Amino acid sequence: MTDQELAHLIQMINQISDNNIYHGDEARAAEAVATHLRKFWARSMKQRITEYARADGAQLSDVSKLAIARLSELQPS
Predict the structure, then answer these.
(1) Between 53 and which of 23, 57, 72, 74 could a Cys-Cys bridge form, CB atoms 3.0 to 4.6 Å apart?
(2) Total Cβ atoms within 10 A of residue 38
């Protein structure tokens, strides 16, 4: 995956997070984002954003970071 593709994933997850903040708090918004990613993102996309979050994650919003952590908990080992 190219840097441009990673930048697009970062933009997408941050937008999804922004669109779900209406749930009232960051934890509930992150749960909604994690559910969205689990249902609609390809495995390669989820792996790449998770790798980015673990390596750096500086461009991710707080809700996005929480969502990725939750997604990691939901994924089978």
Answers:
(1) 57
(2) 14
pLDDT at 23 over 80: no
Token readout for 47 is: 């792996």
- For residue 71, which of 6, 16, 2, 7 has the smallest C-alpha distance? 16
Q: Which two three-digit tokens encode residue 12?
A: 């997408």
- Residue for token pair 């390669």: 44
HSE-CB of 54 using CA atoms within 13 angstroms: 9
CB of 14 closer than 8 Å to CB of 56 = no
Residue 26 has pLDDT above 80, yes or no: yes
Query: In this structure, are residues 9 and 45 in contact, taking their beta carbons and an 8 Å threshold?
Result: yes
